[in-house]
Design a protein that fits this description.
Length: 460
């Protein structure tokens, strides 16, 4: 059994672990950082991301908005530093509704999010002020507005978003949002960290040695044999295995996992404009099935649920640059709590169901339903807490920290999350939003009472 030492061992080389390593080495000068993962970096769930980001988050409180604003600040800074090697854009998120009641609800929620610090809410009802709305550019991120634009004028909506259903009554364009190449973003941070001394070991963390109430060493099963890495500091960035690593030091983390899938296909009909923002249908819906299809679906409890009302949130965006015709579609219409297994189990009906759902928003997609396009379905796990807020900070064993439960927002929040856990490790100044993401928040009676009345989680 070989032995070595490190100042910090990070369990997990997904985007959370890489961001932590980057901020420890590049921003805080810690050189003895070791990342441990049995798989190549960014290859388990991080590479299954839709690669989007947003500062448009509901309460309670302004913690998520502040965390995301900081993370986007860091994302933009790295884009400038690298010559935008990861193609950051600011196309925004476009929420659309065909329901008057839903439009009012969307406007109220948007006013609340704006007040939390996401930026001003600009209303465009038409008339003389109808030309004040300016759409987002397809490329780049500089000089773009924050906040959101709320459009209720049919002429204005049709002028700027002709692909939408004519039933659309209102759209909300959240502006400090967009997407980027998450793989290139993560690898850029990893290479910067490695240039400053971070090391990567391909192996599995199999145990953590704790003595005297603090972390002493990490046991690793590596390709070259078993290792014991003496270290005073462990960062649990294990993604879907967050709970398993927590139990190695006797800590039960309040997390669970959901399987989320996405589908990609070539949109040869150009139903989704190549310069579109992320398109989100904000209404629940019932899919249109033929009588024969309904009978077949009713035969199994697993498929019978497709006959009822399905939730809002089906969304899509164009993927790729230049001559690409690829589009990505997602819809979390069925996400029970599951134990993570790999390879992930895929739903054979998912591609068709999502395409049908998205066709409600983008009617031109109906043309694909007679002969479904060849598609690729993949996915990963949203490991999350009850209220869908991350865990970032110390665990109740000295020298042990967690950065996880990043749910479906791992890529977008990784910058600020990595910065925050690095501040904890090095004794740096903590931002005002730090307490909102600590594990010990669940010991606060006021927070536990808040959980009982928790509203929307902001999940897509």
């Amino acid at each position: 059994m070989q032995g070595r030492s490190a100042e910090v061992v990070i369990c997990g080389a997904g985007i959370a672990g890489i961001a932590a390593a980057y901020h420890l080495t590049v921003r805080r000068g810690v050189t003895g950082v070791v990342l441990v993962d049995p798989q190549p970096p960014m290859s388990v769930t991080s590479d299954k991301s839709t690669e989007c980001y947003r500062n448009w988050w509901p309460g309670p409180g302004d913690g998520m908005v502040r965390l995301m604003n900081r993370s986007i600040d860091l994302l933009e800074a790295l884009a400038r530093e690298s010559g935008n090697v990861f193609h950051l854009n600011r196309r925004g998120y476009l929420y659309a509704t065909a329901s008057a009641a839903r439009a009012q609800q969307l406007e109220r929620l948007s006013a609340e999010i704006s007040a939390l610090g996401a930026g001003p809410l600009r209303r465009h009802p038409g008339g003389p002020d109808g030309t004040a709305y300016v759409p987002a550019p397809a490329e780049g991120f500089e000089g773009q507005p924050t906040g959101a634009d709320f459009l209720t004028d049919a002429t204005l909506i049709r002028r700027h978003f002709p692909c939408l259903s004519e039933r659309t009554l209102a759209v909300l364009h959240a502006r400090r949002c967009g997407w980027f190449s998450a793989q290139q973003y993560g690898m850029y941070m990893l290479e910067e960290a490695r240039a400053r001394g971070a090391r990567l070991i391909q192996g599995r963390v199999e145990g953590v040695e704790v003595a005297g109430g603090r972390v002493r060493a990490v046991r690793v099963a590596a390709a070259g044999g078993a290792l014991v890495i003496a270290t005073p500091t462990l960062i649990n960035a294990a993604g879907p295995w967050l709970g398993e690593v927590g139990r190695m030091i006797g800590i039960e983390l309040p997390v669970f996992s959901e399987l989320h899938l996405k589908v990609a296909f070539h949109d040869d009909r150009r139903a989704i404009p190549r310069d579109a923002p992320l398109l989100i249908w904000a209404d629940p819906q019932r899919l249109a099935w033929t009588g024969e299809e309904q009978a077949l679906l009713a035969e199994s409890p697993e498929t019978a649920r497709l006959l009822g009302e399905l939730p809002d949130g089906v969304h899509a965006r164009p993927e790729g640059r230049g001559d690409s015709t690829t589009v990505l579609l997602l819809w979390p219409y069925h996400t029970p709590v599951v134990e993570p297994v790999f390879p992930v189990p895929l739903d054979a009906a998912y591609a068709e169901v999502v395409l049908r759902g998205m066709a409600t928003m983008i009617p031109a997609l109906v043309g694909y339903l007679d002969r479904l396009p060849r598609s690729v379905v993949d996915g990963g796990y949203y490991t999350k807490t009850q209220e869908n807020r991350p865990l970032i900070g110390p665990m109740p064993v000295e020298g042990a920290y967690v950065i996880g439960a990043l749910s479906g927002f791992g890529q977008m929040t990784s910058g600020a999350a990595g910065e925050l856990v690095a501040a904890y490790v090095t004794g740096g100044e903590l931002p005002g939003y730090a307490p909102a993401f600590r594990l010990d928040r669940y010991q606060d009676p006021a927070y536990r009472a808040l959980l009982d009345a928790w509203g929307t989680s902001g999940q897509l």
